[in-house]
Amino acid sequence: xxxxxxxxxNPVVFVDISTGxxxxxxxxxxxxxxxxxxxxxxxxxxxxxxxxSHPFFTGKSQFVDTEGRIxxxxxxxxxxxxxxxxxxxx
Length: 90
Known about the structure:
Elements: E1 10-16, E2 22-27, E3 34-37, E4 40-47, H1 55-58, H2 69-77
Parallel strand pairs: 1-4
Antiparallel strand pairs: 1-2, 3-4
């Protein structure tokens, strides 16, 4: 490997914000927040979705819209008409 061209490889902890689960690993990513785990300083990176919270990995399915958006809109607001402008009498 050529010297001084590769990014630095650091200890990192990824935290799932929805479940709080922590994944301790190494990465080239950094953050301003640091935490000492088992005597080693790790960069803390928060994630919105990880394998701990993603429906594909958890087996929990989310609501799937089987009805079309236009049909749903027509069902909710089909009878509502826009108010017509008042006619000006001259």
